[in-house]
Automatic annotation (TrEMBL):
Keywords: Membrane, Symport, Transmembrane, Transmembrane helix, Transport
PROSITE patterns given in the database record: NA_NEUROTRAN_SYMP_1, NA_NEUROTRAN_SYMP_3
Biological source species: Novispirillum itersonii
Membrane topology, as annotated: Multi-pass membrane protein
Protein name, as recorded: Transporter
Matches recorded under PANTHER family: TRANSPORTER
Species classification: Bacteria, Pseudomonadati, Pseudomonadota, Alphaproteobacteria, Rhodospirillales
Pfam family for this entry, one: SNF
Length: 442
């Protein structure tokens, strides 16, 4: 079976950035900024993304391109032994995340529709009650979950070049245009400059261990390190790509989207006197109230949730592609069969995830509702363990291969090669171990 490849360098950059850009950039990043000192958190995050984040992303791309295989096959080809277990962790992790990520992706479709049809724009609404009532409904969220999963399946079904690459070339530029338009509206609101100052003028006295951990965790999870996505996408690269340069461009796009999203949210919440540290409810509870009060809020609210939808979709595509690549490479299953079967199973996983927020809320495993259990298993266990093992593998076990890939067999200069080696061997594993330990005891 001939291996698919990206049709162009730009296509790969946009697809890889689309994989990294997700709900974490537009939903989670702004409220973390609000909870962790504003600009001080932003600066800390940027430093960690450009060090720990870049280290892991470049390593995953290099592993994938060197092996030209899915995560399991890549570790088997490069070393074998027990190392393919690391690849299995990535495949399982991405698939489990997709099961509940698609449910939340469905919420973005629902809220886009509700903005347009006026459900979220009438005066005197209790947005907390609207959101809790929506997610607890046994049917409506599942309908939107099915729509979101169908969109994801439709893109991946077309393949690497005709599907993933083609749609990322449409979705990513559209996402960036929406960001710019929404920023233009947010920063021109009365009182918005207070939010801009909070967001861009750092008070370094606010940086402490908790802020650093929050920024480190966001950098790690935002770039999808440890779930095999960049190994899979890297495996579709040709040998002439400059991996360090591609890494910088992907991280630049991913981080840029997060920073720009903050420039929408922070000015808006400050303009209407809303606390910036509202937490996860900032997007689905607080912001609809802000849009309701904003002139032209219906249009801009719909635009914001459409932006959130595009970000979710570009990530969900990579979440599905990882296990699909495994079935194609290792079990010789056709793409069509792999996508339809895995998409169907992921949809079924999403059913108890959604119902656990409503009629199945009292059914708990290890004291956690089903969606929270999947989130704990993936974000607190599998991703950190997988990311830790991947860095150790790249830095200590197959370093000659990493050096060759990063320099294209010595033909491309990479001045930071010794620094990358040190980060892979020591700093990144220590940082990820800290995330793992804090996640388990926190």
């Amino acid at each position: 079976m001939t291996r698919e490849h990206w049709g162009s360098r730009l296509g790969f950059i946009l697809a890889a950035a689309g994989s990294a850009v997700g709900l974490g950039n537009v939903w989670k990043f702004p409220y973390l900024v609000g909870q962790n000192g504003g600009a001080a958190f932003v600066v800390t995050y940027l430093v960690l993304v450009l060090t720990i984040g870049a280290t892991g992303m470049l390593a995953e791309m290099a592993i994938g391109r060197a092996a030209q295989k899915n995560p399991v096959g890549a570790f088997a080809v490069l070393k074998g032994g027990l190392w393919p277990v690391t690849g299995y962790l990535g495949v399982i992790c991405g698939f489990l995340i997709l099961g509940f990520y698609s449910v939340i992706g469905g919420w973005t479709i629902a809220y886009t529709v509700k903005m347009v049809d006026g459900t979220l724009t009438a005066p005197g609404l209790d947005f907390a009650a609207i959101f809790s009532g929506f997610v607890a409904d046994p049917l409506e969220p599942l309908v939107y979950h099915a729509v979101f999963m169908a969109l994801t399946v439709g893109v991946v079904l077309k393949g690497v070049s005709a599907g993933i690459e083609r749609w990322n070339k449409i979705l990513m530029p559209t996402l960036l245009v929406l960001l710019v338009v929404l920023i233009g509206r947010a920063v021109t609101l009365d009182g918005a400059m207070a939010g801009v100052e909070f967001y861009l003028k750092p008070d370094f006295s606010k940086i402490n261990a908790d802020v650093v951990l929050a920024a480190l965790s966001q950098a790690f999870f935002s770039l999808s390190i440890g779930m095999g996505a960049m190994i899979t996408y890297g495996s579709y690269l040709t040998r002439d790509q400059n991996l360090p340069r591609s890494t910088v461009m992907v991280i630049g796009l991913d981080t840029g989207v997060a920073i720009l999203a903050g420039l929408i949210v922070m000015p808006a919440v400050f303009a209407f006197g809303v606390t910036p540290g509202a937490g996860p409810g900032l997007t689905f509870i607080t912001l609809p109230g802000v849009f309701q009060q904003m002139p032209g809020g219906t249009v801009f609210g719909a635009g914001f949730f459409l932006l959130l939808l595009f970000a979710a979709l570009t990530s969900s595509v990579s979440l599905l592609e990882v296990p699909v690549a495994y079935l194609i490479d290792e079990l010789k299953v056709s793409r069509r069969t792999a996508v339809l079967v895995l998409g169907g199973i992921a949809f079924l996983i999403g059913i108890p995830s959604s119902l656990s927020l409503g009629i199945w809320a009292d059914f708990k495993v290890f004291g956690l509702p089903f969606l929270d259990l999947l989130d704990f298993i993936t974000s607190k266990l599998i991703m950190p363990v997988g990311g830790l093992l991947m860095c150790l593998f790249a830095g200590w076990v197959v370093w000659p291969v990493m050096r060759r890939e990063a320099t294209n067999d010595g033909s491309v200069p990479f001045a930071l090669l010794p620094v990358w080696n040190w980060l892979l061997k020591v700093v990144a594993p220590a940082a990820i171990a800290w995330i793992l330990i804090q996640g388990l005891i926190g």
